[in-house]
């Protein structure tokens, strides 16, 4: 019997979005609807599984955990980029790691970014809650027309922000470490230096890949350069922003923030961001759509089937043959 674990299926949809029975009668599929957030919990729950199906980066697999999962032979992770699996350790322990296509994530995440922007600009969550509690309007909103959107990162996701901003009548400026004037112009934006972007933008939206160079790309310096009342939007990765500096800016009510990602996920119940003013928070919903999930789980089943046939596809790490 091959045992397959589906991790972090918060919405309980994995078994309905793909034909898991196609893997054969000798396969047992077990889904987990909660996050395993400690090494001991991961090992205790998953020690008997041959295959782990991970949803993006929700559950990390460190070298220490991999070494303790003696039955593990295949890991399938959704999406095309993953930072939270120790690939070298997987290969060393004879484990194959495969990925899925990105699905519609490239459009879903920028759309959520605009949801956060509009929610902040018009205080939509706050007024919705007030209305349901028996109240009536209290806030005064702002329009986007004539304002400036600053994009930190102008890759596939960042570039999708540009035409939407133009539709709202916004100017668009952009910066990233390797961005050229020509590339920015091609995407419909004006390249500026980093500090100018934070000083001039009414909305700053982050679209960088997290790495050592980009960690805390938004620090005290950048936050203090922002206009009072400007918005900071993060649908990329939490550690792009210095969390302590952000909390300080929010407590002082200098800026507004729309956050879909955090340093620690799920966000702890007592985390100060949950009570911070001037915020709209969502629980990492950027890629969470019906279309993306359907593609993820169909590919996951295909990956398992191909691996069982000895012809793995979309391989990120292959077992060492030494």
TrEMBL record:
D-isomer specific 2-hydroxyacid dehydrogenase NAD-binding domain: residues covered: 115-286
Keyword terms of this UniProt record: NAD, Oxidoreductase, Plasmid
Statement: the UniProt record of this protein carries the keyword NAD: yes
Sample GO molecular function, one term: oxidoreductase activity, acting on the CH-OH group of donors, NAD or NADP as acceptor
Domain D-isomer specific 2-hydroxyacid dehydrogenase catalytic: 22-314
InterPro entries cross-referenced by the UniProt entry: D-2-hydroxyacid_DH, D-isomer_2_OHA_DH_cat_dom, D-isomer_DH_CS, D-isomer_DH_NAD-bd, NAD(P)-bd_dom_sf
Keyword Oxidoreductase: yes
UniProt superkingdom: Bacteria
Family membership noted in the UniProt record: Belongs to the D-isomer specific 2-hydroxyacid dehydrogenase family.
Name the UniProt record assigns to this protein: D-2-hydroxyacid dehydrogenase family protein
